[in-house]
Amino acid sequence: MAKIVTLGEIMLRLSPEGSDRFIQTDHFRIIPGGGEANVAVSVANYGHETYFVSKLPSHEIGQIAVNALRRYGVDTRFIARGGDRVGLYYAETGASMRPSKVIYDRAHSAIAEADASDFDFDAIMDGAQWFHWSGITPAVSDKAAELTRLACEAAKRHGVTVSVDLNFRKKLWTSEKAISVMRPLMKYVDVCIGNEEDAQLCLGFKPDADVEGGKTDASGYYNIFKGMMKEFGFKYVVSTLRESFSATHNGWKALIYNGKDFYESKRYDIDPIIDRVGGGDSFSGGLIHGLLTKSTQGEALEFAVAASALKHTIPGDFNLVSEAEVESLAGGNANGRVQR
């Protein structure tokens, strides 16, 4: 299996039990998670040698996050220790027509204030086959954006495949700031992952698709994929296509383009959704594994979509499924019968 590196922020998610609202709960569950950390757990579960790069305080609250990663086989040796705080976010799980809500409390977290001197990116990338980051990391702070650039440069020096999940977060930055930071970073990227909103708000591309109206015909994405491929020279452009009928009922499929052929995955009807947080990250993790191990882009995409469909049934940020479980669903076994 491959050596895979991810860079980003792992936070502590504070959530009421079940579908309770913030204002009615008297206690919160602590759930570690964050974009690139979620991807690291996924690919570790598929058997890869996985490293998560970040910075966390040296106190016990920081150790909660470190221990969560170690529990699932992620190597944490490249996590710098220091800084004052772990980023937090509060997540209220929606139901039916009531949407989920997220409130961030992550300003001045350790990774947001980390310096280049905290990391030896050449040592980190040595021997790696894949490096993954998301648009959340450069959005956290200007310092984190600089770390992302330095990591990408090191990855290219070592011949490492680089993937990005564009992951626009309007509570972290504006579209104008995102475009100014993200577009220059695209020259390092081989595999670009993102939905229709991400492509527009991070890179300035808009597909011809009425997603809010539930119209996710893949043909609406063809021209935007071709445009992104032509401008940035990606090896693959990939998008998830989510139909949101309610907070607990979604349609889910994806599309991939390699510069020559488009492939559209099968569609999953996910109802009820248990927890959609980390759904996109589980897709990225599945895609990385698929592109590293499958013989065609279609097989890789089917693995990724099946993996992320399963994540929607699991509480928490991490996708706690095995390769065999994903292969079973991708192969058509979706009856949910008890395994004895």
UniProtKB/TrEMBL annotation:
It comes from the Bacteria. Pfam families: PfkB. GO terms for molecular function: kinase activity. Keywords: Kinase, Transferase. Residues 1-313 form the Carbohydrate kinase PfkB domain. The keyword Transferase applies. Gene3D superfamilies: 3.40.1190.20. Belongs to the carbohydrate kinase PfkB family. This is PfkB family KHG/KDPG family aldolase/carbohydrate kinase.
